[in-house]
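Need the bound structure for adenosine-5'-diphosphate, inputs here:
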Amino acid sequence: MSTPLLSGTGIAKSYGPTPALRGVDIAVGEGEIVAVTGPSGCGKSTLLHCLAGILRADQGQVEYREQDLGLWSDSARSRLRRTEFGVLFQFGQLVPELTAAENVALPLLLAGSGRREAREAALTWLDRFDVADLADNRPGAMSGGQQQRCAVARALVTEPRVLFADEPTGALDQLAGEQVLDQIVRASREQNTAVVLVTHEARVAAYADREVVLRDGVVDLTGLGIGVDR
Ligand code: ADP
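Answer from helper R.:
Posting the output first, comments after.
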């Protein structure tokens, strides 16, 4: 790989006395979908949070476009997450008081877009994910799968360079999960968006170009999927 878009080198992070990561190296190229897998508690979510600049690593470096994010202020990293990164969690965490269209428009409004422009973009993304007919529904009037498709639209509406997805299908049935993964992959291919996909499920990891297996806070080099391009 040439210079990666995003990399972590020697990432270590503890919560009090509990080490969650003990020196992890990972690199993600432009448009590449990398699954971070491993059993519950191995440090997957912590790694995603460090790479996305939500958590500061205790040791090691996170570099985005060859810049050390550890040297950035919290506000600069927040701005990066609003503009170049998209984040998607297991439960979409839509704002319950807002409609689907308002939820999807929100990142654009926060980034300074006008209301009309933001709504139009939101409707385009909802249409792309086959939930345009729900644009004026609040999350409470949508199924879990529909909510998650809106959450994917919200994570991608700013056309981020990296999407961080933490167990994005963990709360969905198999069909709804496959639809969400198909949409993530399609958007990644069309926009050349890199994806860091955290999952403990092999069938979810199978959507990725490459798999990094963690075990007890380190990369498991004995794992079957290590470094193997699909
Ligand atoms: P995974 O995503 O693979 O399930 P996590 O990154 O969530 O793993 O957790 C790694 C380790 O760190 C686990 O031992 C977990 O209990 C611990 N941990 C995670 N978050 C916290 C926290 N906020 N406070 C204390 N310990 C935590």
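Comments: The first strand starts at residue 6 and ends at 15. Residues 15, 18, 20, 38, 40-46 surround adenosine-5'-diphosphate (CB under 6 Å).
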